[in-house]
Amino acid sequence: MEKIAIISDIHGNLEALNAIFEDIDKKKITKIFCLGDIVGKGSHSKECIDLVLKKCEVVLKGNLEELIVAHENLDNKYRIFYRKQLQEEYISKITGLSFCYELYISGSLVRFFHAAPTSVYDRVHFFEDHKRKITLFYPSDKTISDKMADIVVFGDLHTQLMEKFYNKTLINCGSVGNSTSIIRDDNIDSDFMEVTQAFYLTIEGEISSKEYNSSLSFDFIRVPYNITKELENSNLAMDKAEYEYEIKNGTYRNVDKLKEKYEILS
Q1: Which of 49, 74, 208, 213 is deepest in the core (most CB within 10 A)?
Q2: d(CA 55, CA 46)
Q3: pLDDT, tens digit (0-9, with 9 covering 90-100), for 90-100
Q4: What's the chain's Rg over C-alpha atoms?
């Protein structure tokens, strides 16, 4: 039996990333996968790239890595800002990151990617119906195998969740550096401390086994970190005010647009 730590969506938050790695070290977990969006939003994209590439056995690309390294003629403010900030040294480090990864664990085919098996930009939210969500288990021309996955682990949504349907398991590992929650109510929420921590996932099972002869477990983990210290260099963030708001309150900066899209009532 072996444990794997799954991290995602660091978004340049070095304090949160260091706290996560310290917690993983305490648990003596040596196999770590990163599902992308190492960069952007926060102030320490370079340092986070170096740390992730050093610590993680598998590093996949997220939509921000794809945006920064691709589309040479794309006039996008995020691409322009972060290409200038990272410069060629760090752009070269995230160029060529893999799109997805998969392996068998205790008899189940587990597929890892940032957002969807088709593209880092295809967002499938938990609020959508099961016919839409089941597409996350289908193979594509970007996946390693042409088999339907038993378990999907992804990032992108910044919220830890697990759901079972059609005899499948869909898991979002949450965000290390930019955790948010869409459904909020000031009359019900006690404080912001639950959501404004660093989150990751562990999977424990028989690695590379195609047989259902051993247990398989998933643990959602949250780790506190020093938000005040992280914000000392927030002047290096592209949208300083929006970044500070998100990590202090755990609320997505465009939450109203997201609620309108999915017809979510507060």
Answers
A1: 49
A2: 14
A3: 999 999 999 99
A4: 18
For the chain, report the end-to-end CA distance as a whole number of angstroms: 42
Query: Who's near 60: CB < 8 A, 6+ residues apart?
Result: 33, 34, 35, 36, 97, 98, 99, 100, 101, 112, 113, 114
Write down the pTM of the prediction. Answer: 0.94
Q: What is the pLDDT of residues 6-55, one digit of tens each?
A: 999 999 999 999 999 999 999 999 999 999 999 989 999 999 999 999 99
Average pLDDT of the chain to the nearest whole number: 91
Question: 31-34 and 58-59: which strand pairing?
Answer: parallel
Span 219-233, pLDDT tens digits: 999 999 999 999 998
Please state whether beta strands 108-113 and 100-105 pair in parallel, antiparallel, or not at all (unpaired). antiparallel
202: phi then psi, degrees, rounded to nearest 5: -120, 145
- Residue 23 identity: D
The mean per-residue pLDDT over the stretch 148-164 comes to 97
Task: Report residue 73 as tokens.
Answer: 């003629």
